Amino acid sequence: MIRVSHPSGILIGEIKLPSSKSISNRMLLLQKLYEPELKLDNLSVANDTQLLEKILEADDHTIYVQDAGTAFRFLTAYCSVTPGEWTVQGTNRLNERPINQLVDALKVLGADIEYLAEEGKAPLRIRGKQLQAENTLIDLTHVKSSQFISALLLIAPKVRGEFNLKVNTKMSSYSYVLLTIACLRRMGYAVHVKGQYISVSKQQKFDGEYFLIEPDWTSFFYWLSMAHIANEVDLFFPGLRLDNMHKERNILYDVGNSAMQFEEINGGLRLVKKSKGQIDVKPILNFTQFPDSAMTFAMLLPAIGCAHATLKGLESLKFKECDREEAITSHLLKMNVRIKKADNLWAINAEYFSMKSDTLFESFDDHRMAMCAAPLSLVEPIRIENESVVNKSYPHFWGDLKSVGFEIEYL
Fold first, then answer.
1. What residue ranges define each of the domains in the chain, with the CATH number in brackets?
2. Residue 317 has what pLDDT?
3. pLDDT tens digits for range 169-207
4. 59 is catalytic
5. What CA–CA distance (Å, rounded) separates 229 from 33?
């Protein structure tokens, strides 16, 4: 457990954000499948990515993915097209998360996959083989997970036959399908997108041996939250640019501050705030495409005086590393903030917002639930339980906080 505080509320320094875990994981799989000599620079040091890299290097046919959901889904597809017999499983929490929609889609392509325990869930036994599309159209509009679609796209060049995937473009986190498409294109594959239909060419025109992975925008939003609460800010984020591949940058201005300025300079983004400024919040904050940042904003809004806010697109939060719907409700209650849920909308009532010194925020064994609480230490000192969970995506998070004046006491 740690106690986090900041004596001055002034944040000045340079923050090297972790590189994108999402891009790293996709490029690692593409490298393994299609370009083993490709050099990946600035690969994420997050536990999920390091684990996936070790699994792919080891080539061990008994695979334990711990709690890495992305690795689990991508490796299920990878093993399906890679000769040999594989067993894939994770922690008890991960094994509880349904995988049947991905397995069913792979079976349409001829995959040999068997459930070893409960139907529709890990552990899985997979016998890798050459897959074949028997039809020119594979209807996946019922599939709810963008990672399932991404897993299929990553192996598409390995599947015989020309085919289109028909997907639901309004699914939660569809932006990550677009990120997968961008990664495939960077690997030299033509990807054709027309409305709901996606097809990937079998021919590759890759003429590079180097790929630089950009910083992680989800991690940046913790710092944006701190900047909103802080008294003064002058922070520089190397490599972060408004034209990065990550579409999550699109929600940068959903919560505005008249005193906050963004400047692209020296290959990165500089964030400056000299006074408190006037806060402006969109009537409805839509996190359908970026649910991982929803908790950060939900914690921020009461702290900057927003008495009422409406959030949407949070249906997937119950099925993350923890039940994030339950976890964020618990976090907010500690600040006397209530949530009312109806018609896929969350109405936040922060009229009676109050922060007591040394409020304890549980991590729920979830990296994002620990980090989304950290900016509140600019309001009052707080305590955070099981601080090491940040290793999953941002291992040097607490060190970065120390570098700009946060005081962290290990209890």
1. 2-18+215-410 (3.65.10.10), 21-211 (3.65.10.10)
2. 86
3. 999 889 999 999 999 999 999 999 999 999 999 989 887
4. no
5. 45
